[in-house]
Amino acid sequence: MKKLSKTFLILASSLFVAANGFFVSCSDDAGDDVSPVTNTPKPLPDDENNSQPEPIIGDSFKLSDLDDYYKKYFVKSGEAGPEIADWGAGSEAKRNENNTWTIKSSDSMWTGVGGIAAAFTGLEEGALSGYEYIVFTADISNFTINTEKNEGNYGVNIQIPKVQKAVTDNFVMNADGTRTYYAKISDFGSAPETAVEFALIAGGSGTFGLKELYFAAKENPAEKAVTKITISASAEKLEQGEKIQFTVKDSNSKNITENVTYTLSGDAAQGSSIDKSGFLTAGNKAGSLTVKASYTVDEKTFETEMTVTVLGTLQNLISKIELEKYTDASGAGNSAVSIEDGIVSVSKPAASGWGAWSSQLFLTISSDSTPIFNAGKKYFISATLESDSDLNGCIWKGGDNEGYLLQEKIELKSGEAVTLVKEIEFTATFDKFQCIFAFGETGAANIKISNFKIYDITE
What domains are there in the chain, each with its CATH number? Predict the structure, then answer.
């Protein structure tokens, strides 16, 4: 359901239940795993993830121990890497001629205290889980680190949503005065298994020089022998006649897009179909639907399956969709957006000056039956997006004030209507929520967002 989910960029795009909402960012082509992002996640609460931990690796860590490791570089002198985004922190990243970065701090970031955020997004889901370390070298000779916890942003941190670890004291001092910080990927728990982005977050003021950043493993994760496969969809429920994308990964967290055979079974199998890429179309019968995937590699066959539910008739909880604001580098403003009969139309001008992303659309969605979301209940969320320009390397993020409930990479094709579906259980009650769509392509585009749906599917 990644196409659905991925494809559902919009809703996705649309739904960022962060602070009562959903968020989606569309950035330039992700290229080799990565591309820029737009604003969103704030540093996690100090009392949970931002406290100073015990040394992650310990005093025995030596950079020379990684000499023979395979390294996946995101920043390396002399080699072009992906763009940096700042998650809306307000810090300014400038690529140097040798492709290292200088990042100027913001005065306030998210919590009123200055600092920098350097985010890399657009990775293949789970790509980070195959590595053992994240390592980066920084020049902080012109950057003063804030070490006062009570002042908000502080220390040097790595965030793999939604887990943040402080690495302030985990560094090796280099002969040229730079510091090489490090952390074990395993200390981020299960977060790397689904992450499509990560970030460096440092509280303080001045300019932060990012000289090098890479992930390291004893061998290239993509070249390890396959031991199993897994199948996933971005939601466990879908509507009759709806289309969703199933994704199969191998034991190295690599997406398998070829040589997979799918079969369907269950109450809702009649009339349903799935193509060789895992794109499922549900039939007109409600009930359970099991998707089985078989994959053969190195003369070994692996199988896995997943069961979803095709829904019957349910009541859509959405009563009103309102425009909060539209921002664009060209200054188009709210005049670029219209809403009629629940359909949102956006005339996005070409980007001018924002670089990684070009515009953001903020919508407020509410219900006559307030609140629209109740704590402890499960909801089915869906919407459809259509654009006359390709939107690649997009991210759908959804969450609450504590972090993400979901995050997925999405790709949209010109002229193809795509629907994203997600099932979420809310831990807080909301009278309304904010939907945020961020678009990162540089060309103009006409975008239509329609068919918003929210169902209460609590059993």
Answer: 2-27+315-456 (2.60.120), 63-221 (2.60.120.430), 225-310 (2.60.40.1080)
